[in-house]
Amino acid sequence: MNDIADLTLAALRDALKAKKVSSLEATQAYLANIEKAKALNAFITVTPDKAREMAKASDARLAKGEGGPLEGVPLGIKDLFCTEGAPTTAGSRILDGFRPPYESSVTANLWRDGAVMLGKLNMDEFAMGSSNETSYYGPVVNPWRKKGGNSDLTPGGSSGGSSAAVAARLCAAATATDTGGSIRQPASLTGTVGVKPTYGRCSRWGIVAFASSLDQAGPIARDVRDAAIMLRSMAGCDPKDSTAVDRPVPDYEAALARSPKGLRIGVPKEYRVEGMPEEIERIWAQGVDWLKDAGCEIVEISLPLTKYALPVYYIVAPAEASSNLARYDGVRYGFRAKEYKDLLSMYEETRAQGFGDEVKRRILIGTYVLSAGYYDAYYLRAQKVRKRIFDEFVEAFGRVDLILTPSTPSAAFALGEKTADPVQMYLNDVFTVTANLAGLPGASVPAGLDRDGLPLGLQLLARPFDEETMFTGMAALEKAAGFKARPEPWWG
Amino acid sequence: MAIDKETVRKVARLARIAEPEQRLEPLARELSGILGWIEQLNEVDIEGVEPMTSAVDMKLKMREDVVQDGPTGGGQPEKIVANAPKTEDHFFVVPKVVE
Fold first, then answer.
1. What is the largest CA-CA distance in chain A?
2. Using CA atoms, how far apart are residues A29 and A118, in angstroms rounded to an integer?
3. Does A199 sit within 8 Å of B51, measured CB to CB?
4. What 3-state DSSP class applies to A175?
5. Cβ contacts (< 8 Å) between A322 and chain B: which residues?
6. Could you tell me if B2 and A273 are in contact, meaning their C-beta atoms sit under 8 angstroms apart?
7. For the segment A239-296, what is each residue's pLDDT rounded down to a tens digit?
8. Rounded distance, CA A154 to CA A132, Å?
C-alpha cells in the first residue's frame, strides 16, 4: 500500500480486517508522520513503544480473525483524558509529572474495541482557550496556511492538537472534548469533522474536569463516517459517572445511509455577528441550498436569546472551573512550588506558578461570581438565563429536526492575533456555546474554502440523544460539499 | 460592576493564588472588562424562571454504598500517593501546620 496514513479510518479498518495491511505497518506510518511534523507541535507526549506493543497485540487478534470495531486503528488522545501510566498534563504545568494510575472510561472503551494509542495531543490549558495558545507546551500550528502565505495560523482550541493531528494525517482520528465549542471550532478551522454529542452520551470519568455541567467528549475525524465510527466506540453508560446516560448506543454509521428527505431544517436568523465575513454568510446560504436540494424542508426560526449565551457561559464555566481546579494544591499530584514559608503560601505559590494567565483569570472570575453577596446577581441569574436558552431550543425543536448554522464567525486566524483581548477570543465560540448550555448534540462539517484557501465549517444541532438524525444531515452536507481539499504539507 | 484592586486581592486570596502587587491593578481592569460585558444579562427577563441545574433530564443515579473494585476501590495506598510531590509511609507530606 502506498501511504497507509492517507486511508480514512473506515478504509483502514476494512484493510486491516482484510489483512491487506497490518496494524504495526499503520502505526509505523503514523509514528513516522508524527516525527516529521514536529513543527506543528500537535503532540505533548508520543508513546511509540506502547503504540507498537498495542499494534502487535491487535495484529495477533486480527490474524485469528478476532478483534473489535477499531482493531488496530492508531488514534491520538487529547491530553485531557487520563491514560494509565502515560503522562496526562491537561496542557498545564500544574500536572507536571502526573501519570494517572487509572484509565478514563472513554479511552478504555477505545482500547476495548482494539484501537492503538499513538500519544497525547496538545490543547489549551485545562481546555480554556479557542486558539491553543494557553497551552504550557506552546501553541499548536494549523497545518493550513493562507494561499501563498507562510504565517502560522491557529488550529482552533481547545482541541487544537486533535484537529491539527487529524488534518495533517498524524493519526487516523482523535479524541477531543467540548465545553463551549472546543471540538467544533477547531474542526471548522482545520477542514475536519467534529462531533460534540449530547451531554451524558459519553462518560466524563477520568477526563480532567473543567466545567462539569458542560464538558462532553467527542471525536475529531477526517470525514463523517469516521466520526460516526469513533463516537459509537467512545459513547456509553458508565457506573463511574452519574451523569452518563443509561441508553443503548446506536449504530451511527448506519444513520449515514438514511435519506435526509423530509427533514425539517431550522435556520436561525440570530446566528450572525458584527464584522462576520460575507463568505461565511455565503457558505451558510450554500448549506441551506444543499439541504433543500437533498429534499429537506427549510424553516426560518428565531432564537432571540442567542447573544446572551456567551455571557452566561463566562459565568457558569469559570464558576464550575474555580471549584474543579481547587484540587490542584501541590499536595496530591503534579507540581509543587520550590519556595514557600508555610502551608498557605505553598498553596498560593504552587497555583500561581502552576497555572497560566487565562486559567488564573477564569478561576478569579469564578471565585468572584460565587463569593458571598454576588452569587444571586451572577451565578443564579446566569442559570436562569441558561434555562430560558434551553426552553428556546425545546420550542424550536418542536418545529424542526435539525438546526443549521455556521460553525465559527471566522476562518483560522494568526497566532497572536487575538491574545490581547480576552472577550475577542471568547467570541470565537459564539455559535457553538449554545449547544453546551442546552446539553444538545452539535457537529461541524467542512463546507468549503474561503478566498484565502482556508476551510470553513457548517454546524448542525439536533435534539438531545438524536445524534443519528444529526449524522444523516451531516452526511447530506458532506456529499453536497464534496470537500476534498487538503493542506500543503509544508511541515515536512 | 467594576472590580477594584482590593477586591482582586481578596478574591485571589480566596482562590489561593499568589498575585504580586503589580498584577492587581491590571487584573482589576481585565476582570472589570469581562464582567462589564457579562452585565448584558441584566436585560433578560428572568421573572419566575427556575435556574437550570442539569443539562439532561434524568434522575441522579444511586448505587449500593459498598467499596468498589478497581480504580475507585480501596486498599491501594501506593497508587493513591504515587503522584504526590512528597510522601512518607503512604501519607502526603505538607509544611508544618501546628507549632
1. 70
2. 11
3. no
4. strand
5. 15
6. no
7. 999 999 999 999 999 999 999 999 999 999 999 988 889 999 999 999 999 999 999 9
8. 7
Nearest Cα of chain A lies from the Cα of B87 at a distance, in angstroms, of 9
Question: Helix A9-17 vs helix A23-36: angle between axes, to the nearest 10 degrees?
Answer: 150
Question: Between B16, B44, B80, which is nearest A348 by CB?
Answer: B16
Which cell goes with A478? 458532506
Q: Which CATH number fits domain A4-258: 3.40.80.10, 3.40.50.1220, 3.40.50.720, 3.90.1300.10?
A: 3.90.1300.10
Residue A146 among the catalytic residues: no
Q: Cβ B15–A214 below 8 Å, yes or no? A: no
A136-174, pLDDT tens digit by residue?
999 999 999 999 999 999 999 999 999 999 999 999 999
The string of pLDDT tens digits covering residues A426-460 is: 999 999 999 999 999 999 999 999 999 999 999 99
Q: What is the mean pLDDT of residues A474-491?
A: 97
Contact B54 A213 (CB under 8 A): yes
pTM for the whole structure: 0.97
Grid coordinates of A179: 465545553
Please identify which of the residues A130, A158, A203, A444 carries the catalytic annotation: A158
Task: pLDDT band for A2, please (50, 70, 90 cuts).
Answer: low
Q: Which amino acid is residue B83, in one-letter code?
A: N
